[in-house]
Amino acid sequence: MTVRIATWNINSVTARLPKLLEWLDGAKPDVLCLQELKCATDSFPFEAVKELGYEAAAHGTGRWNGVAILSKLGLTDVVRGLPEQPGYLADDALLPETEPRAIAATCGPVRVWSVYVPNGREVDHAHYRYKLEWLEALRRSVLEDAAGARPFAVLGDFNVAPTDEDVYDRAAFEGLTHVTERERAALAALQTAGLRDVVPRPLKYDRPYTYWDYRALCFPKNRGMRIDLTYGNKPFVEAVSDSYVDREARKGKGTSDHAPVVVDLAL
DNA sequence: ATGCCCCGCCCCGCGGGA
């Protein structure tokens, strides 16, 4: 069987609902991992995606973060949040908050995590340390599935460009997050767990960027970054028959600033 | 043309994104 899995930082599932339904209808993924829902679990458009044949599991609290998994292949063993997931202590908060940034489910023959890794904001900011801790918690959380015989992958917005080739101009990111050694080391640690970066092909130009800032004509000028990633275990990676970034979904008004990444598996 | 930022929030400038 062929299984199509995709990941998309949707930047508000409410504002993007028409675009989401249009994209599902066209690309027809069997499984879709969503990030940045910006809505509470109860406000997720379960009925709208059900009409297109998708079951959904969502994990959101409101205006920030939020993740979901849509599936046509069944949706079982849902886990909300990473085991041992660190919380973030905001400047004006008394207690750290455990944010909705991860959800897992088994969809037919495949198990997936949909993750939205913390941004980090600035190097050495409390949010940057939180980002590094979060990636370490992710690594610990996937050890068993990563070593298993069942195809397994972590898909989502990792907020890290794995190499200098994954940003349009390395010099433009000097001193900024997403490209630092510590972030890349925390990301690369997933490989010691047995996971590999499934690099998609671009549909245009030479690099498979997945994010372009809304400002300054970044998309037409292809000033992008590859930060939406798929980390698969051996059975998953060996089944990959194709992977691409659907930059068409980034065109026009009312789009997310991220493009969906599609991975096809021959199982 | 892909075209100069956009989201949510107890209304509107601000925090956050990267």
From TrEMBL:
InterPro entries: AP_endonuc_1, AP_endonuclease_F1_BS, Endo/exonu/phosph_ase_sf, Endo/exonuclease/phosphatase, ExoIII-like. Keywords: Hydrolase, Magnesium, Metal-binding. Its cofactor is Mg(2+). Gene3D superfamilies: Endonuclease/exonuclease/phosphatase. CDD domains: ExoIII-like_AP-endo. Residues 6-258 form the Endonuclease/exonuclease/phosphatase domain. Belongs to the DNA repair enzymes AP/ExoA family. PANTHER family: EXODEOXYRIBONUCLEASE III. This is Exodeoxyribonuclease III. It comes from Kitasatospora cystarginea.
